[in-house]
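Problem 12. The chain below contains 297 residues. Write out its predicted structure in token notation.
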Amino acid sequence: MEILNKENMSPSTSTKAIPECIISYVKYQHSKGNVPTHEDIKLHLKATWNLTPYLFGTSNDGLTTSDWDSSVYPTFRSMYSRAKNKNKGNKGLEDLTIKTVDSVDYVFHVDSWLSYSAGASYKEMIGVQEEKIKDIHTTAQFTLCGVASKAGLKVFVPPSDTNKKSDNGMCVAKEYSDILVSSFEGLNDVTREIDVIFCEERLGKLVPIKAFEIENSTAVTKGIARLKALGVPGTIVSTKKAYRKIFDDAIKYSFTECKETLKYAEFVKIKTFSENIIDFEESFNKEEVLNELLKKI
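Solution.
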């Protein structure tokens, strides 16, 4: 970390320097016909900080340049997340468009990219063909187990599903054996069929705190009934757009008592949440991941 003299001290300028660094980099890559990824711009930003840390201002003591781990990177992470999710407000990177294809974030500055390649679709631009998920049920279970691991939770998955391979060729029983449990408070013939249950250890007991039913071929109402039986906040997960209306109607007319406890989420939201946690895991502790998942999914 560079020590500053009083003569060249300056207030923190990360919120200005980060967007300038990233946007100029993205534009330059576009001029070469390239579309940078999230990882590309993160590496470029850190390389710039390593070379000229004073551009990113000072730390709180006013004597040293801003630290990467505690200042520059968290600011970038926040700006990037807001840009990706199109949140309102001054996020610094509002001119960027981020498209996720096959779990990779591609970052565009639309005006400069279109000046290079007008009329092409995003997938054509990056030369990637969209692949459909072959086994949404098992892949969703595997993805959710990954989230539970990052949040420091235990997870229950029906034993009949734990050895099935997800689209990445891996299975829950092998990859998440350290957090996989076979029992929990409230286990019965109905709740043992729930696809994924997140549990916390409390006073020597495994207590469910969140549950998921993945519905892509079975009745949504059966999934709702299972989640209701467990009595904790739950989410119906699906890739079928028609299932959203079925869920909404069921909550409105048949399961009105579950209005405040059950949600519906498309699998892409779960997948994106998982990817964000993995991308930024060095900036999250387990408690923060837990709070985010309970709030967002």
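Discussion. The mean pLDDT is 83. Students who got a different answer should revisit the alignment rule from Section 12.3.
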